[in-house]
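debug: dumping io for the single-chain case to check the tokenizer round-trip. Nothing else runs in this session.
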Amino acid sequence: MSSVVPDHILVRTAIAAARCGGHHAMRNLDRRKAYVQTFAHDIKLELDIECQKHIEKVIFDQFPTHVCLGEEDEALTTKADCAKANYQWIIDPIDGTVNFSNGLPTWCSSVAVREISSGCVRAAAVYAPMLDDMYSATSEGHAYKNDAIIHVSQCPKLAEGIVMTGMDKNLEPGIPPLTYFRHIAAACRKARINGSAALDLCWVAEGAADGYFEGSIYLWDIAAAGLITERAGGKTEALKKRNEPHQLSFIASNGLVHDELRNLLLRVDAEQD
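debug: decoded output
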């Protein structure tokens, strides 16, 4: 059983791991089209798998008894695995894979660690190599962008805000594509689709955006950036679980527009019933 680890050590490892994953991707930009699988609206790269292995090595070199849950795991961490450790690391090696593969700068490596007994995310790091931005936070400390403390915006109304979101294609049977997007776009000043959930949340954390919603997202997409948003003064909330393991509907905001955005989304849900 692994011992209790101070947050400052956990976040130091998270930062090192996220940086390692991001740098491996950057060193191999010439291989960004090396696909393992392609899907209708997504891809999986050889570098996704490689970057996760590099991230895990940094973690296991420091904490060999901890366990990892990553997007590229062949088999998800089991309850039996978690019973052997106090901490679980949650990894998205390249969040925004399509952006990365096509040469856009908005992608990142995301690393969080949670205490298994409480479920509390204790430390987090999100590194965007092409922007040279490192976001980080601990469960009881400030949120940072590089070495500067960051805070959410003071935007008081959804109509005055920017909301980061996704395409919500084929979300559920009976819900037409872009249903959520159309309602969000009508209610806020601007809706933006970036293609990297972790960066979307970090932009909420630093006040560049005011809200975030994704109707179908995975834990590894939002675990690190969710903590960063909270420690920057924002609010996060899982609205519902989806069908696949670790899949959920997730909302975040500066706190001031949270209820307004949440109520809008609940009305959209009610209209589909």
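debug: round-trip ok. Residues 7-141 form a domain with the Fructose-1,6-Bisphosphatase; Chain A, domain 1 fold (CATH 3.30.540.10).
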